[in-house]
Each structure stands twice: as C-alpha cells, then as structure tokens.
Amino acid sequence: MVPLENYLIVSGLLFAIGAYGVLARRNAVLVLMAIELMLNAVNINLIAFSTYLGADRIIGQIFALFVVIVAAAEVGLALAIIIQVYRSRASANIDDVDSMRW
Amino acid sequence: MNQAQTFFYVLSVLAILSALGVVLARNVVYAAIYLVTALLMVAGLYVLLFADFLALVQVLIYAGAVSILLLMGLMLTRPARDIVLDNPQKPLAALAAVVLFVILLYQALASNWSGRVSAAIGRASLNDLGRVLFDRWVVPFEIASVLLLVALVGAVVVARIEERE
Fold it and tell me: CA–CA separation, B72 vs A79, rounded Å?
C-alpha cells in the first residue's frame, strides 16, 4: 500500500501547478483549466484522507462528489460569462476586463 | 515494489507532467488535451484509493463533459494565433507556486499520519456510498441538483444574445 504522504505530495504538486496557471495565464479559458486542476488536487486529498483515516471511508468521497458537482456548475457559468465578454471586447484576455478597476 | 506502488508512481508522474503541459503549453488546444490526460490519470489515482464511483464520475463528468465544454469555449472565443497567453507576472507566479508547494510539502511530511492510519484499509462499496448519500446527505444532494439547474438556466440567460427592440 502506498503511504498517505505520497498522495498528499502529488496533490500538493498538482495544486501548486494549478495555482501557477491561475496566476500566470491571461486567457480566461486557460485560467479555468488551471482551476479544474486545483479542484482535482483537492479531491485527491479528500479521498486519500477518507480512505486512510476515515472511520467509514465514505464521507470524503461524498465531499469530493459535491466538489465535482459545484465544479461542473462553475464551468458552465464561467464559460457563459467568458463568451459574453468575448462578444463585447473581442478577446478572452482577462487583463482587458478592467472597467471596474479602481 | 508491488503492483499498487508501480501504478501509483506511473499515474502520478503522468498526471504531473500533463498538468505542467496544461499551464505551459503554447497552444490552447494542446492545453485542453493535456487537461484531459491529467484528469484521466487522476481518475486512475481514485481507483487506487478504492473510490471506484468517483473514478467513474471523473471520467464521465470531467474528462467527458467539462473538457468538451472547455473546448467549445476555446472554439467560441478563438484566441489569435500569435497572441501571448501568459502574463508579464509569470516569474512572480512561479515563485508563489513554489512557495505554496513547499508549505504543503512541509505540512504533509511534518504531520504524524502513520499513528492514525486505520489498520485495515478496505474498500467502501458502492452500496455503502449510495446508502450514506441518500440517507445522511440527502438534503445537500437535492440542493446540489437545484444548484445545477440554476447554473444551467443562468448560463443560458447570461450567454444569450439580447434582442434590442
């Protein structure tokens, strides 16, 4: 059996890569992809903790299921917003959306 | 090294390499393909963790639906071919990501997990998952379905082209 730490390290690495993508990308759809990576890293953590430490080994899986549901809703809405931004500014560049910047 | 460990290392290395591909690729479609690979490898990790149902959900919803949705988004907001996809703040972003990883690594290694790991790591069956989901977690589950409906209607309303009279 693989030690729990290995799963934590893999998920930490995935989370850090996703965070880099969110900070470094400027195309909105690519930022969304990086957010999906971060959510997946969190899911690995939830399931690993539930399998290794949980009393009934189920709760973490249920949390992960809810994370997947919310992520699906988030992607749908975010893409609608991105498409609307693209229509009004002819670009999906998040640096262009700065009309509310102080 | 037994079979589970071999699978774990192969899947994790592939997942991390494809994740790097997602954030470093110069072509947006390649980034999407890398994302699909990374998500499938994570599904393999779920299987190793005895979360069969979650692995199935991962393949169906993430690798199937979400990635298709993202590809549609890329198609509809087609970036110009020679445009720069990255911010000028890239070095700072890399620094922040490395610091974040070091903190996570330190926490993962400093905590004493081995004392608390259950002796027999067994599989929770799909039966148990369904029973708990529709017993103790049934209200959040129904709320989640309403959330999906609201997101669906909201996406249609937001993305619609308004007709001006």
Answer: 9
CA–CA gap between residue B123 and residue A28 (Å, rounded): 39
Residue type, A42: V
Which of B34, B81, B113, B163 to probe by mutation at the A interface, max A CB count within 10 Å? B113
Q: What is the pLDDT of residues B18-59, one digit of tens each?
A: 999 999 988 888 999 999 999 999 999 999 988 889 999 999
* Residue in the block written with tokens 């249609």: B156
The Cα–Cα gap between B99 and B95 comes to: 6
Distance from CA of B143 to the nearest CA of A (A): 10
State the count of interchain CB pairs (< 8 A) between A and B.
241
Closest CA to A10 of B59, B13, B5: B13
Give burial (CB, 10 Å; 0-12/13-18/19+) of A101.
exposed
| Nearest residue of chain B to residue A69 (CA atoms) | B144
Q: Which residues of B touch A66 (CB under 8 A)?
A: 140, 144
CA-nearest residue to A60 within chain B is: B51
- CB-closest option in A18, A30, A87 to B31: A30
Q: What is the pTM of this model?
A: 0.90
- Nearest Cα neighbor of B8 from A44, A56, A17, A53 is A44
Segment A20-58, tens digit of pLDDT: 999 998 888 999 999 999 999 999 999 998 888 877 778
B17 touches chain A (CB under 8 A): no
The 3-state DSSP class for residue B9 equals helix
